[in-house]
């Protein structure tokens, strides 16, 4: 299902990545797989045994043949045009109380990594999108599985780096569409290796700290909340309704003020949030 030794104008190699990791991240990475082609970096990690507690398994691909987004959507990019990275982590029982808010904390970690490696200020769209100038820059998908009573968490992140315009046009139905780092920076984007190193480091720190520090990550998410104060459309099951996003609660739920004026909690699950205008 996977082919090694990726070849592109911005190559990714496991050995070079390991050497570039800062010491704290290098000590934390138990396994690092880099492939030219894989069905899905997250599916690859879910098929493998979880890492030891306190360590990361990492999978990066130059190209995914069956990349996944939320609600069963496909996520794809031409080879070498995006960074597709997943990390696996094991939480011994009991799982963190705020586990449902993990996608939001992952967004904060990705935002920090992008700020450090690309110098961009990124907004976060609940529950799992990275946003620049109202356009989709990337997305996050969190999978969980039980492993002998423990919780195996896999966080997948896709970031548009240098995409052909036709590819960008096909990956987002947002009013302003999608964007990549090269367009956001109006010049050469950071090398994918640098971005991968920053993500591995920041995601590892977040996962290690999340059980005790979830509140701090949710506070930072609130500061970068790209939905707050915006009119949104909520689609859940066969229902669709509109309202004004009013921020998030301590468990990561989104609060939407309905047209009747009543606040309503929205949990991620099978809910889709769209800008209403």
Major sheet details: 8 strands, mixed
Shape: globular
Estimated helix fraction: 25-40%
User: How many structural domains are formed by the residues?
Assistant: 2
Uncertain regions spanning at least 5 consecutive residues: 3-8
Assigned CATH class of the largest domain: Alpha Beta
One letter per element, helices H and strands E, the order comes to EHHEHEEHEEEEHHHEEEEE
CATH superfamily of the largest domain: Bira Bifunctional Protein, Domain 2
CATH architecture of the largest domain: 2-Layer Sandwich
Number of strands: 13
Count of DSSP-assigned helices? 7
State the strand order across the main sheet: 1-2-3-4-8-7-6-5
Helix- and strand-based class?
alpha+beta
Q: What is the first-to-last residue Cα distance? A: 41 Å
Radius of gyration equals 18 Å
Mean pLDDT: 90
Fold-level CATH name of the largest domain: BirA Bifunctional Protein, domain 2
Instruction: Report the portion of residues in β strands.
Output: 25-35%
Describe the structure concisely.
This protein is α+β, with helices and mostly antiparallel strands and 277 residues long.
Overview of the molecule:
It is a single chain. The chain is α+β, with helices and mostly antiparallel strands. The chain has two domains: 2-223, Bira Bifunctional Protein, Domain 2 (BirA Bifunctional Protein, domain 2, 2-Layer Sandwich), CATH 3.30.930.10; 231-275, Roll (SH3 type barrels), CATH 2.30.30.100. Helices cover 28% and strands 33% of the residues. It is built from seven helices and 13 strands. It has helices at residues 14-20, 23-28, 41-47, 102-118, 165-169, 181-184, 192-223, and strands at 2-3, 29-38, 56-64, 82-91, 123-125, 129-132, 135-147, 150-160, 231-236, 239-248, 254-258, 263-266, 271-275. The strands form two sheets. An eight-stranded mixed sheet has the order 1-2-3-4-8-7-6-5, with helices on both faces. A five-stranded antiparallel sheet has the order 12-11-10-9-13, with no helix packed on it. Strand 6 and strand 7 form a beta hairpin. Helix 1 packs across helix 7 (192-223) and helix 4 (102-118) packs across helix 7 (192-223). The longest helix has 32 residues, at 192-223. The relative contact order is 0.15. Mean pLDDT is 90; it is low at 3-8.
């Amino acid at each position: 299902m996977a082919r090694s030794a990726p070849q592109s104008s911005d190559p990714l190699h496991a050995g070079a990545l390991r050497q570039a990791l800062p010491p704290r991240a290098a000590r934390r990475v138990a396994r690092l797989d880099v492939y030219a082609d894989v069905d899905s970096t997250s599916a690859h990690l879910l098929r493998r045994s979880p890492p030891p507690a306190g360590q990361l398994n990492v999978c990066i691909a130059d190209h995914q043949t069956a990349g996944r987004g939320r609600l069963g959507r496909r996520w794809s990019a031409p080879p070498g045009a995006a960074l597709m990275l997943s990390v696996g982590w094991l939480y011994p029982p009991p799982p963190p109380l705020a586990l449902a808010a993990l996608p939001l904390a992952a967004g904060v970690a990705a935002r920090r990594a992008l700020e450090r490696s690309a110098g961009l200020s990124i907004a976060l769209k609940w529950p799992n999108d990275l946003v620049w100038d109202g356009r989709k820059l990337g997305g996050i998908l969190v999978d969980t599985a039980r492993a002998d009573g423990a919780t195996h968490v896999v966080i997948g992140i896709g970031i548009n780096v240098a995409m052909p315009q036709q590819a960008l046009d096909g990956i987002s139905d947002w009013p302003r569409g999608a964007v990549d780092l090269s367009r956001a920076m109006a010049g050469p984007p950071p090398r994918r290796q640098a971005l991968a190193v920053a993500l591995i480091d920041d995601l590892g720190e977040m996962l290690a700290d999340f059980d005790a520090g979830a509140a701090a990550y949710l506070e930072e998410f609130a500061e970068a909340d790209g939905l707050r104060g915006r009119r949104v459309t909520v689609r859940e099951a066969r229902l669709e309704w509109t309202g004004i996003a009013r921020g998030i609660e301590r468990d990561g739920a989104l609060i939407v003020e309905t047209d009747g004026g009543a606040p309503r909690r929205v949990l991620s699950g099978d809910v889709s949030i769209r800008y209403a205008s």
